[in-house]
Amino acid sequence: MLFYLALSISGSALPANEHDFIEGLLQHMTLEEKVDQLNQLGVQDTPTGPVIDQGELAQLPMSTVGSVLGAYGFEQTRRLQEQVVMRSRLHIPLLFAFDVIHGFRTVFPVPLAEAAAWDPALAQRTARAAAVEATASGVHWTFAPMVDIARDPRWGRVVEGSGEDPFLGAALASAKVQGFHGAGPPDPSFMLATAKHFVTYGAAEGGRDYNVADVSERTLREVYLPPFQAAVAAGVDGIMPSFNELAGVPLHSNTALLTGVLRNQWRFGGLIVSDFNAIWELSQHGIARGPADRARLAFNAGVDIDMASQTYRQHLPALVRNGEVPLTAVDDAVRRVLQAKQRLGLFEDPYRYSDEARQRANVLTPQHRALAREAAQKSIVLLKNTDALLPLPKHLRNVLVVGSLATDAEATIGPWALAGHPEESITVLQGIRRAVAADTEVVYLPGASPVSKEAENLNTVRQAARLAEVVVAVLGEQADQSGEARSRADLGLPGAQEALLRALLDTGKPVVILLMNGRPLVLSPTVRQAPALLETWFLGSEMGNAVADILFGDVNPSGKLPITFPRSEGQIPLYYAHKNTGRPPSGDGRYASAYIDEHWTPLYPFGFGLSYTSFSYSTPRLSAQRLASTQSLDVTVTVTNTGARSGEEIVQLYLRDDVASVTRPVRQLRGFRKVHLAPGEARDLTFTLDQGDFALLDSDFSPVVEAGTFTVFVGADSTTENHARFEVTDSRALSISGQSVPSQGSN
Ligand code: GLC
């Protein structure tokens, strides 16, 4: 209504429809007002990037801004919105953007942990709950999901993504976009979503954040692009380019990928928003000759919105006036921003997301806490359980809990939990204390922290351990040892935690290790001595309760690793979908692709996770031994719970193209299904494979199905040898665009 007011002031006729409304608005805007819409101001209190001394720019009038990063809460967003709507000439409302990565006030497991649940429906539910809380708190737009494939755990941001595999990553990317959207506009819990960081950010050389990525065209198309394509197919509203360069071209000035792939190939019609100050950093990359050149390079490559650097505001108008930037391109970018605001209903009511009653009613609700507990339970991975030490009985004379992480509330919510309140989360120690029987004594000693140089009072720790029936050692990383700009060259237990663990093991008492970490760690021989090992990541607001639910057996662990755990840093990058090479590492003799000082296999492979029960698999049964490329194939296995308690098993299907015109990975995930089975229960599971699964990109990157034999594996993790073979009888070019990744969720 505000804009209609503006139009009536200007004497123009009211627009007939939404399209005319936007076009009418555009016609009334000066060039500077248009560029203001492409300017995003970082007003966050908790910086998510280098604090830039903006000098006079820090006093920017809000009316010269199209969107704001980091403001939230009905009061702050209402106040900022009023400044713009009431003081600007055309009263165009602001967009409020925030990093809603794994929850909002209710914090869910970090994305890498949630990926261990292999549960797109769960990911959609937690994204939905996060959107309900964030939009009730004034947020219109999240910079999530982060969909970067990562195969190098030295890179700290592996915590923010879904691990190493494009098929699992694409399924989760799609689910999260749908979760953020919900029913869609005009529902006020609809939140704009952004897939980031486009693209190959996780391939940073040396695992060093922001470093160059130098992957082949094939790896780009087969590994790094698919989750973004899935997000675009799911209707994601924004794409954020990554800080890195790819093969000499920074993503923020990469016309081939931003315009060539995103706009022209994939027909992406949403917003391309820079990362924090990344346009300014084109000078650091050494490709911009001065400030105006930064703006020219980024805008002409396809970046619509400048986050935090103010480069567009300072230089785009002059570039348009001197013909270096087409006004039509600026109009197109501004149109996309205005359309986003229109979809959110902000022209009708700029304050509809800044609603005190809605915020108070929807944040940190019991339902969201219950969902956080469920998601945390499903994200925990049982890595080792010698002699069925776990689950522990709740009736014990004495349990010793050791490790500073057991009481570290910041660590429970992990990195990128900007709106979370650590004091509202349940720590591991709190969860254990709540779970045990009233007459069970729980003794706690910090012992060591991930940042301590020395372990504390090891004699006291040894004495306490000798008095305990069982020791629970909570070891791993602090929240700020994973995440952005948190690369590590040494992936062992940081600080003096190893010394603490050796002291505990020396007592001979049974030690259960709970790992709290945001990335695969290199687990030393000392760690491997412990009889029981649970991967508990950073699980969010309900961490302590969920850990106790698993530790004491109220819930049977079902998580499976979404990323490989190497034996040593020297193996990195190490991932399951590797190539066979001409001298396979599995070969014998000295001339094999292996190490002379370390076994080439991972410590724990992709897809691995144990249960308190056990499962058996029949050999896969195929609907055909030979089929045409146009036909589909049913693969059926019988999964049986062979243990004494019910449990959930994540059944995984992998496919290998045995011989092709280009080399193929030894196997690729092409289906997964979670099944709940009672003791002794058997269930037939059928996966259907089709051309999308058989396809590859040939040497010209054209999608084809090639005649020949395939091996299909079905089992409990990526090392299963439970397989069957079939043959596709003809070759055929496919019309699917982009790359050969099959449609997600087909299995
Ligand atoms: C950060 C991150 C990005 C985030 C942005 C805004 O530097 O790279 O993921 O969305 O800045 O906080």
From TrEMBL:
<dbReference type="InterPro" id="IPR036881">
    <property type="entry name" value="Glyco_hydro_3_C_sf"/>
</dbReference>
<keyword id="KW-0378">Hydrolase</keyword>
<dbReference type="InterPro" id="IPR017853">
    <property type="entry name" value="GH"/>
</dbReference>
<protein>
    <recommendedName>
        <fullName>beta-glucosidase</fullName>
        <ecNumber>3.2.1.21</ecNumber>
    </recommendedName>
</protein>
<dbReference type="InterPro" id="IPR013783">
    <property type="entry name" value="Ig-like_fold"/>
</dbReference>
<feature type="domain" description="Fibronectin type III-like">
    <location>
        <begin position="649"/>
        <end position="718"/>
    </location>
</feature>
<keyword id="KW-0732">Signal</keyword>
<dbReference type="InterPro" id="IPR051915">
    <property type="entry name" value="Cellulose_Degrad_GH3"/>
</dbReference>
<dbReference type="InterPro" id="IPR001764">
    <property type="entry name" value="Glyco_hydro_3_N"/>
</dbReference>
<dbReference type="Pfam" id="PF01915">
    <property type="entry name" value="Glyco_hydro_3_C"/>
</dbReference>
<comment type="similarity">
    <text>Belongs to the glycosyl hydrolase 3 family.</text>
</comment>
<dbReference type="InterPro" id="IPR002772">
    <property type="entry name" value="Glyco_hydro_3_C"/>
</dbReference>
<keyword id="KW-0326">Glycosidase</keyword>
<dbReference type="InterPro" id="IPR026891">
    <property type="entry name" value="Fn3-like"/>
</dbReference>
<dbReference type="InterPro" id="IPR036962">
    <property type="entry name" value="Glyco_hydro_3_N_sf"/>
</dbReference>
<dbReference type="Pfam" id="PF14310">
    <property type="entry name" value="Fn3-like"/>
</dbReference>
<dbReference type="Pfam" id="PF00933">
    <property type="entry name" value="Glyco_hydro_3"/>
</dbReference>
